């Protein structure tokens, strides 16, 4: 791959990270098109079909982030780990920009990321190598059974990986009390809320 490589970009924007460890930090988001994980509750289903999104060069994406002044770029999707993003990550690093990825872990993660947020999905399980690389393990709780399902992956994570439960937005009212009680009894877990939705920002 070279700097001439093109990737399908659904959208890109400068905002505040609303979830997980980097909550509250300014971040430039690049959402890549293409995903075969197929979460029923996905709020960006239009990202699934890569062919409907424009192909964008690494140089252009780096320029977006530079012009925003953001010290941090978050690459999300879709499922960004479907692609080898090594050259994009290196190009952003060359400009002094930190790079995070948000992935389901269903694919091998290629690229020297500063932070890997792995959010596993029941529709396509994460692979072992990606689980071990994760800095942050964030499980979206759509159904109460997701809590115990999340526990089944802990043995495959590295010891420093941070653990988060995040209530799925539409089911938050019923699941958040369960999550609160669970975290109080299992303090190695933390709670992530979609704070960007409360702030009404992307």
Structural write-up:
With 202 residues, this protein is an alpha/beta fold. The chain has one domain (6-199): TIM Barrel. It is 25% helix and 25% strand. It is built from six helices and nine strands. The protein has helices spanning 58-68, 86-93, 128-133, 145-151, 172-185, 195-199, and strands at 6-16, 26-32, 55-57, 72-76, 98-103, 115-118, 136-141, 162-167, 189-191. The chain has a nine-stranded mixed sheet with strand order 3-1-2-4-5-6-7-8-9. Helix 1 (58-68) packs parallel to helix 2 (86-93). 38% of the residues are buried. The mean pLDDT is 95.
Notable traits:
alpha/beta, 202 residues, TIM Barrel, 25% helix
Assigned CATH superfamily = Aldolase class I
- Cα distance, first to last residue? 31 Å
Helical run tally: 6
What name does CATH use for the topology?
A: TIM Barrel
Q: Which segments are poorly predicted (pLDDT under 50) over 5 or more consecutive residues?
A: none
Helical content band? 25-40%
Q: Using the 3D structure, state the CATH architecture.
A: Alpha-Beta Barrel
List how many beta strands DSSP finds.
Answer: 9
Strand content: 25-35%
Q: Structural class given helices, strands, pairing?
A: alpha/beta
Report the mean per-residue pLDDT as an integer: 95
Order of helices and strands: EEEHEHEEHEHEHEH
Largest sheet: 9 strands, mixed
- What is the alpha-carbon Rg in Å? 16 Å
Total individual domains: 1
Shape type? globular
Arrangement of strands in the largest sheet: 3-1-2-4-5-6-7-8-9
What is the level 1 CATH name?
Answer: Alpha Beta
Please give the structural blueprint.
Layout: E1 6-16, E2 26-32, E3 55-57, H1 58-68, E4 72-76, H2 86-93, E5 98-103, E6 115-118, H3 128-133, E7 136-141, H4 145-151, E8 162-167, H5 172-185, E9 189-191, H6 195-199
Parallel strand pairs: 2-4, 4-5, 5-6, 6-7, 7-8, 8-9
Antiparallel strand pairs: 1-2, 1-3
